[in-house]
Amino acid sequence: MSDPFFHPVSGFELPRFAGIPTFMRLPFVPPGHERFSDVQVGLIGVPWDSGTTNRPGPRHGPRQMRDASTMIRAQHPVSGIRPFEQAACADLGDVAINPADIQDSMARITAFYSAAMAAGIRPLTVGGDHLTSLPVLRALAANGPLGMIHFDSHTDLYHSYFNGQMYTHGTPFRRAVEEGLLDPKRVIQIGIRCSQYDSEDLDFARANGIRIVSIEEFHARGPEDVMAEARQIVGQRDTYVSYDIDFVDPAFAPGTGTPEVGGPNAYQALQVVRGLSGVRIAGADVVEVSPPFDPSGGTAYLAVTVMFELLCQMV
Amino acid sequence: MSDPFFHPVSGFELPRFAGIPTFMRLPFVPPGHERFSDVQVGLIGVPWDSGTTNRPGPRHGPRQMRDASTMIRAQHPVSGIRPFEQAACADLGDVAINPADIQDSMARITAFYSAAMAAGIRPLTVGGDHLTSLPVLRALAANGPLGMIHFDSHTDLYHSYFNGQMYTHGTPFRRAVEEGLLDPKRVIQIGIRCSQYDSEDLDFARANGIRIVSIEEFHARGPEDVMAEARQIVGQRDTYVSYDIDFVDPAFAPGTGTPEVGGPNAYQALQVVRGLSGVRIAGADVVEVSPPFDPSGGTAYLAVTVMFELLCQMV
Amino acid sequence: MSDPFFHPVSGFELPRFAGIPTFMRLPFVPPGHERFSDVQVGLIGVPWDSGTTNRPGPRHGPRQMRDASTMIRAQHPVSGIRPFEQAACADLGDVAINPADIQDSMARITAFYSAAMAAGIRPLTVGGDHLTSLPVLRALAANGPLGMIHFDSHTDLYHSYFNGQMYTHGTPFRRAVEEGLLDPKRVIQIGIRCSQYDSEDLDFARANGIRIVSIEEFHARGPEDVMAEARQIVGQRDTYVSYDIDFVDPAFAPGTGTPEVGGPNAYQALQVVRGLSGVRIAGADVVEVSPPFDPSGGTAYLAVTVMFELLCQMV
Amino acid sequence: MSDPFFHPVSGFELPRFAGIPTFMRLPFVPPGHERFSDVQVGLIGVPWDSGTTNRPGPRHGPRQMRDASTMIRAQHPVSGIRPFEQAACADLGDVAINPADIQDSMARITAFYSAAMAAGIRPLTVGGDHLTSLPVLRALAANGPLGMIHFDSHTDLYHSYFNGQMYTHGTPFRRAVEEGLLDPKRVIQIGIRCSQYDSEDLDFARANGIRIVSIEEFHARGPEDVMAEARQIVGQRDTYVSYDIDFVDPAFAPGTGTPEVGGPNAYQALQVVRGLSGVRIAGADVVEVSPPFDPSGGTAYLAVTVMFELLCQMV
Amino acid sequence: MSDPFFHPVSGFELPRFAGIPTFMRLPFVPPGHERFSDVQVGLIGVPWDSGTTNRPGPRHGPRQMRDASTMIRAQHPVSGIRPFEQAACADLGDVAINPADIQDSMARITAFYSAAMAAGIRPLTVGGDHLTSLPVLRALAANGPLGMIHFDSHTDLYHSYFNGQMYTHGTPFRRAVEEGLLDPKRVIQIGIRCSQYDSEDLDFARANGIRIVSIEEFHARGPEDVMAEARQIVGQRDTYVSYDIDFVDPAFAPGTGTPEVGGPNAYQALQVVRGLSGVRIAGADVVEVSPPFDPSGGTAYLAVTVMFELLCQMV
Amino acid sequence: MSDPFFHPVSGFELPRFAGIPTFMRLPFVPPGHERFSDVQVGLIGVPWDSGTTNRPGPRHGPRQMRDASTMIRAQHPVSGIRPFEQAACADLGDVAINPADIQDSMARITAFYSAAMAAGIRPLTVGGDHLTSLPVLRALAANGPLGMIHFDSHTDLYHSYFNGQMYTHGTPFRRAVEEGLLDPKRVIQIGIRCSQYDSEDLDFARANGIRIVSIEEFHARGPEDVMAEARQIVGQRDTYVSYDIDFVDPAFAPGTGTPEVGGPNAYQALQVVRGLSGVRIAGADVVEVSPPFDPSGGTAYLAVTVMFELLCQMV
């Protein structure tokens, strides 16, 4: 039987709009807490947007998503999975990033995740902009490159921006491949669309064996077929799942910095996560939720539902 | 020929943004009005949200929907039905609920609807949260249990909330079955989704013969097939139609208290109502429209379009 | 030297937009916590609006104010007081109110505050609508009636609403006087304005010796003079401070359910709290902050600044 | 004793957020209604913004102000006046303007007001942009020029705009003087500010004897002193009161098309109306409330409070 | 090789949120500019909404769309077309319409477009309400009637509004057919839906051979099949493309004056433009974008993506 | 007579909502333009917020302020100054900052301003966060330290943030004093308020002779008296004026990252600029306008009015 310490607060005891908002109303178990090493899946916030080249805001993502996540209940509606009973889940808090120094922040993020790894905790991250994934991968791929299933409207494979900027939210996976954190032949990017500067990112993908599923292909084939291919590409080895909320059409997820029209709807946004069934998820993130551009809060609520679906796949 | 008294004000006489907003610009015929007994379909507001366990706001629904409903014109685009010429329709006003007393409010609502029933008026209700349906059903089912076609993302079949609260917006149809207002074997719930506390509501449905169509089944089969089954379940006897706006995906209907992602789109939201063709509708409601969470007003406009579709089915 | 356990998280360690939001980034010390009895001033949320007769929303107040309160720093700009070093302050969490039962909720609130009183904790409350003050006073005035300095645009002294409703946000202080929780001769209400139903509340005030300072008098005399009178009225005995955010002009505090135009500006809103210097504050509250009507969040930020001023007076 | 037919619906019978919104919950008595000739003060909407040269929106003003006006109660807080008992007040509905033809609309407006005049009704108008005042004055000044007390940040005295446009919201009072509807020597404009195209309007004012009180003078002298002068200028003859909501500082009234910073606060916005005491008000208007630019609705609520103050002066 | 003068500013040189916003960051080449006659495709704003019979706002469309259009990059994601290298594109500025005179404005618009035509420039227009199309067609159809592919939820074929108003945003194409600007047999209208006043517009269409594809037919057949028919109807002769943003479902495009629920999603909104391949586009417009009703700006961003798709078809 | 090239577009030729928005509708004269050296006052945007330690957004300031600035007309309402006729004013465009590198951005800013200085242009800057002032001062103080009149709610004199970050929006003037760009004895900071981390900034001010006028002192003495002192402190030597929009109370200026309640109202916000009369202004800036937190756009409009007042002082 599961440990009551790790059970979320029930909406029948304390109304869901009440109480201090931790992720999914889980206990707050920061590094140093006496139960830290008992955690199996750690929900971690990275309130950071220094890599943003366009509209900032994801630094506010973790707090808004903690708030929205108090709407999440105990049981998955289709599978019946009760994740909080199947694994010890906890809110590990936010990484103390440094908003004025990208390199320092990346070092702090990697250190935080390395500590979680050392304690045997699998991380489910709430960004932050997409650069967040890079320092996380530096911790998670310590023992060798991972595969990745990546939902996004952008490849984030650019070489650099502006005056040779190597670290922005448009470059994390280029760096991750270069640093040996990802095995490009086990990487699939799904949902890619939008007008482009040029084909430099696509050329890199092609040259390295990264599989790109454009939104046109996604809509033509449907989520189930695409996810079958994704499972095949990553196979039965450790895989990272990175979910940029701008994968979803901006009508469903307006609260993001660089929306691109014509994406999946909210139902498909969940279906693709259900299609991860059987994948060995070493860690996952949901990034680019930007509260200042989300006046009705719907983006955050979609994003926490995606988190819940991810969690049900991870436990 | 139809009675001009019951014709709505035309947008060619008075611009649609002008004038005192009654539902669909119909005449205001409250109880006591000399034409009350001539009304055939009565549009009634129930500005009430005391049953809300989460985010309040539906008490403001009727007023916002009156405002939005001035955009409705005279003729259905597909069937060509001109409902205001086929039946005497009127705005009966709002029930004078008591915002600080649930039992008193329910008594007032039932009394209002009983008076309408006595005058031979079929009601089309604008909520209000979903608890509204219970006191309405108490009036409508005076002569025996009704069938029900229920569009929603939640079953609203829970036994109780918090400290044994029996009357909330999560319990109306449990009560209605218990009180013999609904025949559970003639009840179908369509669009159910979202993470759950537990399976208590589903167990009740199964034990009593209530048919639940999950959103997964809805998306797989499509609106037409599902509605064919719905028509079969309720058959040719009196049926209530209850339409919780959170049935629709929150991208299309953000203005509601407990949105659940992954629902039908707006076109499907209308298609299901068109699928009511031939059903004997004893009354209908559209509930849970919450203006404070609807910054651009789109939810109300969708909801009044649903109302217009319902009205075309009722006349 | 002060106990580091009770120090808020510094914005130099963790950026102010980061981290799980407790009130003013203080430790979370709910009833039952091992440090509970060491707390001197307890910040308590009452997420409740069942007494609201107009626009609901204050149930969301505590969460939004926790979020906004992470902007509060350590030191008062004028007095130099560092309250978190002068007294052990903590976030005691939210009272688990029952959103569907007013009497049950009041009992729960009184029980929570009685426990805090028993532990020697002085409460600083975040509402909730103004009915919140009544069950709080039932705990605080256990040993005899208190004086009260009350900032508001409404007297909240009505006898009843609707069908004889005795417990709404328009009646708490009528009840409190009737129940002997307040000594009406030591009560002053400041900022009263707005069109009235009738003079029933003013008649009650006059008959019982409650001093009412209308907004016209407030603007004519200025905050300092009015507060001198307030201090004199309550004298050197235990006094409750109740601060309804609709005291302030709605340009400065739009996020409230029943705004009344023509109130004090934000500077005066702080000045009156500074005018409490020397008052023996048995407890205080800030109520009627309604996030759904506060699109830019400014009301919450003003309210937490008022809280900080109150806290500096209480330590 | 006053006629109950003309009493507004009480908030104790029907909550203020409920019911079909007429102005101040008064009866709807359009031209042709059997009680039309019994009305003494008629509240009339003119949903029109064809004269707007900048941001449109005031066509939506009457509806939003009807909604907000349900917050108005029965009695003035300072004078104790109960206007609905002192005069038969009613909502006469909206003028059916033609949104695509300025001349046709002006003719319709003048006709509506002439009918009200013929029935002995004094009008209190809700605009609409400021051009609204011109066709209203054409009806009201049928028997000779009126004086005017005009609150605004703009003089609205320009000769023409663009390609010689004579009828815009920047020209109504130039036309009114030219047409002999206003006696310029009995006209005072209060609150004038903002950067200017040139001095053409001020030159016209000076040449014709119109008194302009700049915002600098207003702030230096204060509302009471300025209003004493205003009363003297208009004297004891019939006077029109025109209140452009952009008179007030945009922090208090953001919902308007051409805001100008640095105006009076909300308290002063009411004080100037109280300063009309003793003026013979032939009619009054509140114009330029633009709901699309008023996300929190505060402008409308301020405007209806101004209306209530005006009404208390008119009865 | 293409002329660098006509290249847009790159996001790698100047961040996309920076700089003075011209359409798609193209050079500003107004009439009279020395490079005017070198322009091949001219992007023109018509900031005008005098034809609006419902909610105004499209006068603000061009500016908001210039702002949003700085997000557009250089290359089409599917076809790889780089339109700014294939044709000399420029922002020709806004037509100086007269907001208070419909006829004067139409004359100014026609004159501007005639000048562009004379310089050999094909126009891509940003409205403005839909009446904009009429004066544009007067210039473009100088040499004979055009075909038209028209995306909309309304036919805009009404005879007149109100008191016989012939020129509103509900009548442009009735006038265009009457004036011989459009060949009705080469006109197709796609996406038509919404409740109707009557069938007068449909009768006109039928009588003149205009093909109407209702939204029901659109959803049943899909974009590709419908567009194949559209291409066949207009054939290989000059064709105008008119894209009313209310063609798209309001969840994806809330920022418009007369939204109608149940339309295409954003992906389909782009697909139909891609289906124009091979059509001889004499000019195109995107109209009815209304910023005041678009709090998160998503409508404008969708609209500029549609513009980019149109541009890729035009070059 | 003044050069027509430098005249803004009139609202009588092109409506103020129309056209490509440059600052105050002035000509766009970027570096390299043939008229660059003829410019006397250059309006420059710095779309940059990398120094923000709290809520980001000012990178979007210049674009929103260009939009709002099209409302500015030609003539000052009090002084009658027509600045665009008295000096050649132009929009020099935005500095191409690098959003991912603080040092690179500062170098780019300084280079841009040095070029303007070399051309004899006095700059009026639109930020950007307050760190913007530092690289601007590096260019302007090339020949020796300047005095400064600084309007703000924060001193921005902190030594460092987080892990020793020296360059944030809380440190620019500490750096400027250290680098010899400002003469601290000729610096006055006006409006300082808000809870503090500690007294480190005040200690630095005191030790170096910087004069701080707290908001309490400001409200007690009034704008005119404070500005008389300010003029005396800076004397008749070159002075920089830095205007952080959070100087103003957040009810008047909500669109900023770190609002502090209790500041001046909008009228006082202009009065202090008028109090600069006679000061030798070497350059000025308006910073920290953050559009994502300004839903109704009022902050930008206030800020451009402040800019216009500054411009009238500079010409």
From TrEMBL, chains A, B, C, D, E, F:
One GO term (biological process): putrescine biosynthetic process from arginine, via agmatine
Residues that bind Mn(2+): 130, 152, 154, 156, 244, 246
Record note on cofactor: Binds 2 manganese ions per subunit.
Keyword tags: Hydrolase, Manganese, Metal-binding
Swiss-Prot/TrEMBL cofactor(s): Mn(2+)
Annotated GO MF terms: agmatinase activity; metal ion binding
Gene3D superfamilies: Ureohydrolase domain
Family stated for the protein in its record: Belongs to the arginase family. Agmatinase subfamily.
Name this protein carries in UniProt: Guanidinopropionase
